[in-house]
């Protein structure tokens, strides 16, 4: 079976579009359509229903997609193994990171890793914790870094770095740290991260333990990224709970001020997450060991 056809099939399946798949693969749309038609002829069934510009996988397409992804992953794993056997430190490494570890921890870590494996090509997806976990489960990435554990028996979660969450507010906000209490939080304009965010999961757990349900908070906005929340705080929309890593520049610049909960920091772990009973590729295993060693020594 032609791996190029498998790869194009997966692109069409994921993008639900022949034209977008063609753009990503640097091919013409008729070429992609021809490859898919050839694959359908080989399998003896339609893989997609086409209605104008709408592309919908058939039931056969849904089934075939799972196996196509496995075959492509196996091909990549085989190439990496052979390269290592021949003494080449060359191959692909597919990682993912939720917002904070993906933007503030992984870049530095990957820079050091690349100095040891300069010919390893790294693919890094950034999303929220839930999406990164889904990427690991469906095989799109081998290892993820997330800000909260999710109940999923197929996955292993290994702590590898610490983080601190703080209540952040505009620097000119009338409330002073001395006046703050958890009970007063319910009366303040609060900015929430989206469902699936690791920061939100940890925050909800922390507040629930202290008898505060987020439904009782005065929610003025629900935003889909740390950057959006940070800018909303600076512009006086409200306050929020954020990783201290994400606002260090703003703290130094005097744009944001923070208060601690219960007069002490709210700590959490970041986790490396991967399929527990699946053998990692050589480079993924090397990165896992490297990440644990480097973060433990810092």
Automatic annotation (TrEMBL):
- Return one GO MF term: transcription cis-regulatory region binding
Quote the InterPro entries the UniProt record gives: LysR-like_Sec_metab, LysR_HTH_N, LysR_subst-bd, WH-like_DNA-bd_sf, WH_DNA-bd_sf
Which SUPFAM superfamilies does the UniProt entry name for this protein?
Periplasmic binding protein-like II, Winged helix' DNA-binding domain
**HTH lysR-type domain residues:** 1-58
Q: Which domain of life is it from?
A: Bacteria
Q: Which UniProt keywords apply?
A: DNA-binding, Transcription, Transcription regulation
UniProt KW Methyltransferase keyword: no
Quote the Pfam families the UniProt record gives: HTH_1, LysR_substrate
Similarity field: Belongs to the LysR transcriptional regulatory family.
Name used for this protein in its record: LysR family transcriptional regulator
Which organism was this protein described from? Answer: Desulfofervidus auxilii
